[in-house]
Structures are given as structure tokens and as C-alpha cells.
Amino acid sequence: MAAAIGAIGLNLLSGGAGQLSLGHAFFLAVGAYGYAWLAGEPGPGLPAPLALVLAVCLAGVAGGLFSPVSGRVRGIYLGVATLALVFIGHHVMLNAESVTGGYNGRAVAPFELFGFSFTGQDPELLVLGVPFGAEERLWYLGLTLLAVAWFTARNILRGRPGRAMAAVRDSEVAASVMGVPVARYRSAAFVVSSMYAGLSGALIALAFRRIVPDYFGLVLSIDYLAMIVIGGLGSVGGAVAGAAFVTALPLVMARYADALPIVDEPGGPGHVVGPTEAARYLYGAAIIVVLRYAPGGLAGLLRRRPARARPEPSPTGTDPAAGAAPPLGTGPHVTPLPVPSAQRKESRP
């Protein structure tokens, strides 16, 4: 669910506004470390809901500081510029030990709302005789946040901002002629995408309970690009489906590694491909297949409908059931026009 929220944000940026970003992992890290520092010790020790909101806003501020670049740079140059954010962020995470904990990372404070802990075991809660532990509680928290992110993104894409971003994506020149402030909408899309990434990073931090800098690297940004390409650019549901595919595939490969001939079990001798590497090979191949045979991704495949059989038009361009059309100028409803006498006279030199 955390990956789905981040993928929705990246899809708003890339699929909605047509901007390439390789720095999504940086904004995920801002949200994760922002929450861990604001809600933990050392740190302000703020209430968890307030720390979560401030972490999302902090990611939005980071996106806003970069938005002047995103508003003026486009194409592969924007991708290179956002790629620099990943390496700068990794350097900061390793050296700002008072905030990030350095190479070993830092623990994440549990999330509590009105005294109810979503990531702790106390107080013990039983639902139909089944212990309702930290994973179950966090699952429903992630489900709620994903629903809010889903409906917000759909309203953005279906409203006036979505139409403006689509115009910018299709043709910036045409959008400018129609009165759309191109730079403003490009910057706004980057800010909104960064806030989605911040929420996703905070939820990842709650799920992992300890975050380290090496997790938020370039590979994570590429994973999110794979999610939106496989799911379908410009589709909220496609982003969720792509996130589920990319995140679940390594778990499935690890679960059935003993039954697959070329996949090694987790912690095995390493003579063959591990589950994570095998999963990346598979969804890399899935990207190639999608780009070649289904450019719309999983969402495009679901939107396809078999074409209805239509009768072929007759050679004369008329409906075959109605018969052949009468020659032009004939028929019971056509009255020949009288020809003027001047036109009947032969012209003489």
C-alpha cells in the first residue's frame, strides 16, 4: 500500500504532466526520515499524527524547492537533474547522523492515534478470537491512506488541474496558446508528487520500524518507474496494480524458490539467481512486453473491448440493405431544373 501511494504520486507527475523523474526515492526518504525524526528521540517528539502530516508537508517543501528546475527543464534533462537528488540525498543521510542515524539508520516511533497504537502490541486486541497485532493494525491504516490518496488523485485528474496537466503533457505550445500557465502546472505537479512520495515514505518507515540510507537508492526510483509503466501511465488504478505486481513478485519468488530451477532460496549458497534479482529480471522483461504490445499497461488491457462486428459498406458507399442509390438527379422527388435559353444558343465568334 505504501508503494501504491508512491506510484500514484509518480504517475501524476509522469503520466499526468509528462515529466520524467528518477529522484522519487529522495522524496520517499524525506518523508520516512522526516516522520522518524519528528516523532522520535532524538527529535521534537511530536504526536505521531502531527509528525505524519508535517513529514508529508516537508516532502512537499522539498519538491517546491526543486520545482523551479522542474518548471523549466524537460525531457531527459529533467531526469538527469532528479537523478542528482538521489546521490545528494544519500550523502546527506550518511553524514547527518543526528537526524538520520548515519549508516546504521534509526528506529521509527510507533504510530498512535487517540491512544490506540497501530504499530505496537499493547493493549492486546482480539477480533473474533484472533490476535489483532501490529501488522493487522498497520494494514488497515495503509488501506485508509491509500483510499484517500486514490480519490484525491482521481479528482485531480478529472478536474481542471488534470485537464491542464494533460494539455501540458500533449503539447506545451498548444497549452500556452490556450492560456495554461505551463511552468506553474509543471511545478505544481512536482510538489503534489513529492507529497505523495512523502506519505509513502512515512508508511514504509512504519512498516520497516527501522530505516537505513541504502534502501533509498537509485534502484528504488527505478522500481517505481517500473510500477507506473507496467500499470499504465496516467491511470490511478494502473499505478496501484503495477505497485502490487512489482512489490509482490519478489515475495512470490522467495516463497516458491525451492520449486523454481534457477532461483536460489533466501540465504542460500548463492550459486544461482536470488529471488530479488530474479524478480527484477522478470518485471524488466514485463516492461519490454508492455512497451511493445500493450503501451497502455495493465490499465489499457482492462479498458480494451472487442470491436463490434459492423457490416462492410457497399462499393457505392450506401447501405446494402437499402439497395443501390438512384443516379444523381433522378428519382420521384427530383425535378429537373430548366436550362436558360441563353445557354442553349451556340456561341459564335
TrEMBL record:
Coarse class of the protein's main subcellular location: membrane
Q: Name one GO molecular function term.
A: branched-chain amino acid transmembrane transporter activity
Q: Where is this region: Disordered?
A: 304-349
Write down the species. Streptomyces chumphonensis
Q: Which GO terms describe its cellular component?
A: plasma membrane
Q: Classify the source by domain of life.
A: Bacteria
Query: Bias regions of kind Low complexity — which residues?
Result: 315-332
**Which CDD domains does the UniProt entry name for this protein?**
TM_PBP1_LivM_like (cd06581)
Membrane-related topology note = Multi-pass membrane protein
Q: Where in the cell is it found?
A: Cell membrane
Q: Which keywords does UniProt give here?
A: Cell membrane, Membrane, Transmembrane, Transmembrane helix
InterPro entries, from UniProt?
Answer: ABC_transp_permease, LivM-like
Q: Which residues cross the membrane?
A: 49-69, 76-94, 138-157, 188-209
Name this polypeptide is given: Branched-chain amino acid ABC transporter permease
